[in-house]
Amino acid sequence: MYDVIIVGAGSAGMTAAIYAGRKKLKTLLVTGPNIGGETNSTNDIQNYPGYEGPGPELMKKFWAQAKKWGAEILESRVASISKGKNFTIEFEDGKKLDSKTVILCYGRERRKLNIAGEDKFFGRGLSTCTTCDAPLFPNKETVVIGGGNSALEGALELARIAKKVYLVHRRDQFRADEVTVEIAKKEPKIEIITNHSPVEIQGDKFVKALIIEEVNTKNRRELSVQGIFSEIGWETHTDMVTGLIETNAVGEIVVDALTRTKTPGLYACGDLTSIPYKQTVISAGMGSIAALEAYKFVTGSLASHEYAK
User: Where does a domain end: 178, 195, 230?
Assistant: First the structure.
């Protein structure tokens, strides 16, 4: 029986493991195949306090610290989580483990463009996070792909930094709020291209161009850009916890300010939650909150130096 099983080993999961280990909780960290999570895809982090550099290097520091505090490590995939008196976690290989609490922090998956060059140039000019990576493209030519609020807001954010911003959408109407669309139309740095879909990313070591195609005529056009931002959405997979959580309109797990789900003892943190601003530093903070809440749940007492109203 574990005190806490943490599902996912990105910045949220590893921070939770650090805090749980320091509180002497019997802790299992289930890593899955991607230790480091979404932070690994960022080549140049500039907004994490006390650290500037490649995302994978920062995650190596998290990993070393998580192991230092005694968390057991299991590389496996969770098939389902059920709740009786305690939680039972079943893995894809059929193995089952019990825990008093569970922290979900396995992230989300970006919707893929499914075009040539996507995998090659991801993290080399292709990004899925305008907030994270826009500052890397001062006075550069860029393109944002998508038609929702995240795409329009991303284009406006880029317009403050980049020399040029193309906004490519496969339909003739945007899904974004009309007021945001109108602001984007009036921004001189933004060129809106509707009824076009991306078909290929070109470059050598880094992005040099995006090829787009008109949806009706199939005529193609080359956009010479150094940065491509895919803002076509994300997918959060919650089948493993069906009935134990609530989700919002976009499938994210609904949590309160203390990372609690609707099921006592089940917490969620990081990018898979309803909390906005998907950032490494925010996910790490949520991981610490979740671990302290798990400690309180297991022991029945507040963590040392924790304040409560």
Answer: 230
